[in-house]
C-alpha cells in the first residue's frame, strides 16, 4: 500500500544521500577516490595498463546505465581485481539512482558473498564508511520494496556504525511510527523506538550546515520540510500511544 509519509521519508533520505549536505553523510566516495589514486600511482610507471584504463573509464563515467555496463565488463575482464569492492559500490549507487531495487539488492548480496569477513569484523573508519555507503542504499531499496523488517534491519545497522546518520534516522522514524504490531507490549516498545529516532533526527537536522552554493531561502525551505516530516511522525506516535 502506498504511503505518502513513507514516500516523503524515503525521498528525503535519498535527497540527503545525493546532496551529501553535511559531513555526517557517507564518506565512502572520498575513501574510494583515495584508494583509486593509490592504485593508479602504484601502476603509473607502466606505459600500458588495460586494467587501470578500464577502471578509470568506469570511475569517470557519469551516466548510471553506462556505468553499470562498464562495471559488469570490468568484473568479467578482471575477476581477481583488487578494486572489486569499489566496483560493487559504484554498481549499487548506480542501481539506486536508476531505482532498480532488485538489482541493487542482488549486487549487495554478491558483495557480501565475495567479502564475507569484511561484513563480520569490527573495522576502522575507512571500511566502516564503505559499509555505511552500501547499507544506506540497501535500506532505501528495501523501504521502496515495502519490506518492513529489512528496512529496519539495515537502518539499525547503519546507526550501529554512525549513530548520527540522518537518512537512517528519517527512515526509521517514519517506518516504525507507521507499521505497528497488534500486540500491545510490542507496539509500545516500537513506538518508544520511533520516538527516540524522531528526537535524534530533529537534533541532527538542527545541526546541519548549509552547503555553500545553496541559497539561504532554499536551504530554509528544505530544512523545514525535513522537520515537518519528523514532526508528523512524532504526532503519529503520540496519537498511537493514547
How would you describe this protein?
It is built from twelve helices and no strands. With 242 residues, it is mainly α. Helix 2 (28-43) crosses helix 8 (125-144), helix 3 (50-60) runs antiparallel to helix 4 (64-77) and helix 5 packs antiparallel against helix 6 (101-114). Residues 18-29 have low confidence and may be disordered.
Brief overview, please?
It is built from twelve helices and no strands. The protein has 242 residues and is mostly helical.
End-to-end distance:
25 Å
CATH architecture name of the largest domain: Alpha Horseshoe
Q: Based on CA inertia axes, which overall geometry fits?
A: globular
Order of H and E elements: HHHHHHHHHHHH
Query: Helix/strand-derived class?
Result: mainly alpha
Number of strands: 0
Output mean pLDDT: 83
Largest sheet: none
Total helices: the number is 12
| Low-pLDDT residue spans | 18-29
Q: What's the helical proportion of residues?
A: over 70%
Range of strand content: under 5%
Number of domains: 2
- How large, in whole angstroms, is the Cα Rg? 19 Å
CATH topology of the largest domain: Serine Threonine Protein Phosphatase 5, Tetratricopeptide repeat
- At the first level of CATH, what is the class of the largest domain? Mainly Alpha
Amino acid at each position: 500500500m502506498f504511503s505518502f509519509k513513507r514516500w516523503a521519508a524515503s525521498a528525503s533520505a535519498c535527497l540527503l544521500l545525493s546532496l551529501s549536505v553535511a559531513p555526517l553523510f557517507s564518506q565512502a566516495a572520498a575513501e574510494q577516490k583515495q584508494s583509486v589514486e593509490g592504485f593508479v600511482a602504484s601502476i603509473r610507471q607502466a606505459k600500458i595498463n588495460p586494467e587501470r584504463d578500464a577502471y578509470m573509464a568506469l570511475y569517470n563515467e557519469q551516466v548510471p546505465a553506462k556505468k553499470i555496463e562498464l562495471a559488469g565488463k570490468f568484473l568479467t575482464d578482471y575477476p581477481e581485481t583488487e578494486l572489486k569492492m569499489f566496483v560493487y559500490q559504484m554498481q549499487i549507487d548506480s542501481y539506486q539512482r536508476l531505482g532498480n531495487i532488485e538489482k541493487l539488492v542482488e549486487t549487495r548480496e554478491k558483495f557480501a558473498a565475495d567479502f564475507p569477513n569484511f561484513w563480520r569484523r569490527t573495522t576502522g573508519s575507512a571500511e566502516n564508511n564503505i559499509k555505511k555507503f552500501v547499507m544506506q542504499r540497501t535500506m532505501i531499496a528495501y523501504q521502496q520494496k515495502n519490506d518492513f523488517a529489512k528496512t529496519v534491519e539495515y537502518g539499525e545497522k547503519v546507526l550501529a556504525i554512525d549513530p548520527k546518520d540522518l537518512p537512517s534516522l528519517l527512515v526509521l522514524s517514519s517506518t516504525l511510527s507507521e507499521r505497528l504490531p497488534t500486540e500491545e507490549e510490542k507496539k509500545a516498545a516500537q513506538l518508544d523506538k520511533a520516538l527516540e529516532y524522531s528526537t535524534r533526527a530533529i537534533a541532527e537536522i538542527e545541526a546541519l550546515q548549509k552547503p555553500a552554493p545553496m541559497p539561504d531561502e532554499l536551504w530554509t525551505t528544505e530544512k523545514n520540510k525535513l522537520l515537518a516530516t519528523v514532526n508528523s511522525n512524532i504526532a503519529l506516535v503520540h496519537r498511537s500511544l493514547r
